[in-house]
Inverse folding.
């Protein structure tokens, strides 16, 4: 067999066994290009560190315990914010989706406040709550809330009327339909809302940490800027990307596989 | 299973595009005695699905009344089981959970309702598919689940809205034969809506031809059971009746 073909078959088998490899391979040219540009020293080393510098800085910050601590702070903030956002957003979305009256009362303000982006709240939040956890939590919950609410409403509306009718003629009450039909029917959209909400929330959190933070990945990056450490800024950026990949692959994708995809409501 | 009586039923829509009232159903009266199978056949737009939706309680009539076992219909209820053209299975429930849904709503405990569901799945020849999800099944199998789900709730009347219109021709024949077998075993009171003349005659004791919202004619179908397609295609009575119904539908 020719060697190229053999290499390809090896790759195909390896990615089948460890799908993570397939996710890493596209980054090889990116990192290679980065490395080459860094090695040629077109830009001064202090402004444009090489991958090796970043890896060294990673080891250093892990060793000092700064990176794990900051990472934990950021992730916990996101998790708490997302949980609170869902706890409010899903019931609110169901209410607006099911009840015409709730929709009439809540839809216009929802659209209005959705337009006031997370960061646009920061000035007034800083005056009200100061530089601290309350401000950050507010920003994340706020950011997660709207995609979850709006997508849940969409999901509730997307449940075919035939399923309502089927449930009614099988003797289901309105309350049971909410639980047995509306909620599972809306779930794929709820997850989409959660995915968007977490994505926006994560970005908003980093921005908030830069401005009000005393810890967290955003703070790490902004603090590095003050110290003029480009290598730590780049490291922070890479951590953000990696962390999102992990959240997607380990949390969101499995939920999607177990629900919408399994039920045939979403194409794979 | 109980008698279904429809008296002077009518339905008037306001068509916003045409800016006029449309009489979809006009003064329809018919009776489905206990244990009988009645087909309503007619071209699209003749009002047959509107009648079924009113009997099911999904839409209110403009006039007349619908009685199930003497009680007036005011909305959807478990006394009238519905089989939908689109199957309307719950995608997030397994086949078994779908069929057990009616008994679950009646508050029957899990072991008991699963026993009931398995019984009706066996009746529909689906025991092997109990743990699967609807989207993993073919259209024909999905509609078998739909029929089993409606029957498992033991309704007084079974309403079927063009249930086999979206499966392929071969599967349709099989499903029709299975339905006649199940009907003979259980003798439910059935109101069956279709635009397919052969299907209407094949399945029913009585065929009601509908046209422009009105009953054009009712015909008895005295063909003995069990009915099978291979025998019936050569049956003179079947040919005569089908021809007669077809003429009525086409003249409509």
């Amino acid at each position: 067999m020719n060697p190229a073909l053999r290499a390809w078959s090896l790759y195909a088998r390896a990615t089948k066994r460890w799908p993570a490899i397939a996710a890493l391979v596209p980054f090889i040219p990116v990192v290679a290009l980065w490395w080459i540009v860094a090695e040629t020293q077109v830009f001064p080393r202090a402004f444009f560190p090489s991958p090796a510098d970043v890896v060294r800085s990673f080891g250093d910050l892990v060793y000092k315990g700064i990176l794990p601590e900051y990472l934990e702070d950021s992730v916990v903030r996101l998790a708490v914010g997302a949980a609170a956002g869902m706890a409010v957003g899903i019931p609110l979305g169901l209410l607006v989706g099911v009840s015409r009256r709730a929709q009439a009362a809540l839809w216009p303000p929802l659209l209005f406040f959705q337009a006031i982006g997370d960061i646009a709240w920061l000035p007034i939040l800083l005056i009200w709550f100061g530089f601290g956890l309350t401000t950050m939590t507010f920003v994340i919950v706020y950011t997660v809330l709207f995609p979850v609410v709006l997508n849940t409403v969409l999901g509730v509306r997307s449940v075919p009327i035939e399923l309502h009718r089927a449930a009614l003629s099988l003797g289901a009450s309105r309350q049971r339909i909410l639980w047995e039909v509306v909620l599972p029917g809306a779930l794929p959209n709820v997850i989409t809302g959660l995915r968007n909400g977490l994505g926006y929330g994560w970005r908003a959190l980093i921005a908030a940490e830069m401005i009000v933070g005393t810890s967290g990945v955003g703070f790490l990056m902004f603090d590095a800027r003050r110290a003029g450490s480009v290598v730590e800024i780049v490291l922070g950026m890479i951590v953000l990307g990696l962390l999102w990949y992990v959240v997607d692959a380990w949390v969101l994708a499995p939920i999607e596989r177990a629900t919408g995809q399994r039920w045939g409501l979403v194409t794979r | 299973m109980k008698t279904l009586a429809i008296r002077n039923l009518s339905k008037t829509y306001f068509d916003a595009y045409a800016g006029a009232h449309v009489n979809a159903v006009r003064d329809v009266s018919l009776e489905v005695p206990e244990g009988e199978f009645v087909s309503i056949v007619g071209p699209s737009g003749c009002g047959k699905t509107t009648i079924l939706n009113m009997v099911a309680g999904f839409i209110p009539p403009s006039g007349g009344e619908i009685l199930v076992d003497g009680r007036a219909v005011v909305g959807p209820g478990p006394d009238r089981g519905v089989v939908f053209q689109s199957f309307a299975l719950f995608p997030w429930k397994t086949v078994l959970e779908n069929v057990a849904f009616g008994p679950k709503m009646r508050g029957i405990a899990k072991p008991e309702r699963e026993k009931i569901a398995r019984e009706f799945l066996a009746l529909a020849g689906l025991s092997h598919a109990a743990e699967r999800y609807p989207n993993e099944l073919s259209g024909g199998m999905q509609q078998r689940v739909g029929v089993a789900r409606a029957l498992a709730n033991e309704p007084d009347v079974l309403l079927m809205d063009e249930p086999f219109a979206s499966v392929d021709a071969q599967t349709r024949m099989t499903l029709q034969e299975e339905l006649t077998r199940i009907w003979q075993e259980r003798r439910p009171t059935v109101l069956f809506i279709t635009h397919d003349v052969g299907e209407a005659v094949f399945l029913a004791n009585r065929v009601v031809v509908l046209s422009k919202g009105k009953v054009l004619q009712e015909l008895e179908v005295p063909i003995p059971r069990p009915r099978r397609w291979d025998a019936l295609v050569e049956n003179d009575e079947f040919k005569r009746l089908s021809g007669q119904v077809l003429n009525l539908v086409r003249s409509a």
